[in-house]
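[step 3/7] inverse_fold.run input=structure_tokens len=149
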């Protein structure tokens, strides 16, 4: 058994000019790439093996991330199957100079664990022990079942 919090990851990155469009906002593909990488980290920590992306259910872009903002990505495994893991990924933008932080993107990704031969392998059972883990799992499941905005 592996705890939800064992999969939790957070990364931060300043949005630079090469990651922006002609409006000075982060490219959607740049954001998606980082979401997939964050999901991989969470899934690998959980499965304790290599993983591959099986699907990205949908990505909701809530607000732009501007040039110079700090993009903060969080990801964690919140549900499992026999060989797959559901990972919640959220991206926020911070502008410390103005004290501003806002939600910018969110998604649910599915990863499959693989062994050294690249064959599918079982994943550990997910355990949720603390109030914080329960809050994270419930938030992910609520968001997963919500209709498209």
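[step 3/7] decode complete -> sequence:
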């Amino acid at each position: 058994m592996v705890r939800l919090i064992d999969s939790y990851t957070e990364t931060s990155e300043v949005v630079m000019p090469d990651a922006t469009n002609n409006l000075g906002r982060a490219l959607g593909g740049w954001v998606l790439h980082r979401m997939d990488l964050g999901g991989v980290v969470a899934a690998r920590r959980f499965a304790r093996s290599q993983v591959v992306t099986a699907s990205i259910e949908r990505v909701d872009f809530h607000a732009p991330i501007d040039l110079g903002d700090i993009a903060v990505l969080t990801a964690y495994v919140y549900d499992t199957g026999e060989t797959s893991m559901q990972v919640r990924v959220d991206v926020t933008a911070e502008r410390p100079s103005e004290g501003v932080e806002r939600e910018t993107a969110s998604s649910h990704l599915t990863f499959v664990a693989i062994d050294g031969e690249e064959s599918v392998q079982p994943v550990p059972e997910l355990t949720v022990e603390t109030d914080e883990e329960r809050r994270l799992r419930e938030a992910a499941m609520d968001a997963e079942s919500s209709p498209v905005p």
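[step 4/7] annotate
Residues 49 and 63 are 34 Å apart (CA to CA).
The chain has one domain: 2-142.
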